[in-house]
Fold this protein.
Amino acid sequence: MDDLTEMLKGTLEGCVLEIISGEETYGYAITRRLNELGFTDVVEGTVYTILLRLEKNGLVQVTKKPSGMGPPRKFYALNDAGREERERFWVKWQYLSSRIDKLKGGGR
Amino acid sequence: MDDLTEMLKGTLEGCVLEIISGEETYGYAITRRLNELGFTDVVEGTVYTILLRLEKNGLVQVTKKPSGMGPPRKFYALNDAGREERERFWVKWQYLSSRIDKLKGGGR
DNA sequence: CGCACTACTCCGTGATACTGTGTAGTGGTA
DNA sequence: TACCACTACACAGTATCACGGAGTAGTGCG
C-alpha cells in the first residue's frame, strides 16, 4: 500500500487508544501490533510521539517495569479520560466513514 | 460533531476529487456540497487551497466562466491524471477503513 | 568483543486543514 | 445614492500530526 501517512492523521492516535484499552502494553509492542494489523509502515518514532502526547494530555496511566529482554518498558493503561477520548474517537470515526461511504455511493 | 479537521487530512482532497468527477463544478459550490454531505465545518478557504493544489499537481482542467450571480467562476473537471488519483484515493480509503473496522471489532 | 534485538527519546521536516483578511461582482432596499 | 447580503476567489500565516534520523541503553548470542 502506498503512502497512508496523511490519511492516518487523527486516526492513528485513536488506534493506539484502542490497542491500549485492550490490555496494558508498551510502545515497542504497540508498534508491532499496528504492523500486524496492516499499518505496515508505522514506525517506533511515530508511536512514541503519540504515547508522549497521550501522557501529556492525561489520558493514560504509565508504569515502568523491568523487561528481562532489554531496557525497562513503559506500560500504558487508559484512565477515565482516556476511555472517554476513545469513545469520542469511535463516534468521530463512525461519523466520518459513513459520510465518506455515502459520498462514494453517489452522495444522495 | 466536534472537530474533525485532523481526521479529514488526506481524505478531504479525495472527497473533492469525487465531487468534481461527478460534474464540472466550482469552488463555492463544492464548499456548499461538502457542507450538505455532513462536512459542515469545511469552509471556502480550505476548499480553495485544495483546488489550487489539484491544479498545481495537474489533476484538473480549469475553465473560467462568467456567472451572472457574482464574480466569474472557475470550473474544475478531472483529467486522466485526476481520475487515476481518484481511483488511488478510493483504494487507500478502502484499505484504511477495513483495517480500522477490523481493529474496532477486536483486531483478530 | 561485536552484533542483533529490544526499548525509549528527541529534534527536525513535510503535508494538510484551518483562520483571517482582503478583493470583487451582483442585486435588493431604504 | 448608500448600504448590505450573497456570491466567488486568493493568500499569508498557524497548528497539528505522522514521519525520518540519530542517539542512548539493556540483554543475550556467536
Summary: The first helix of chain B runs from residue 5 to 8.
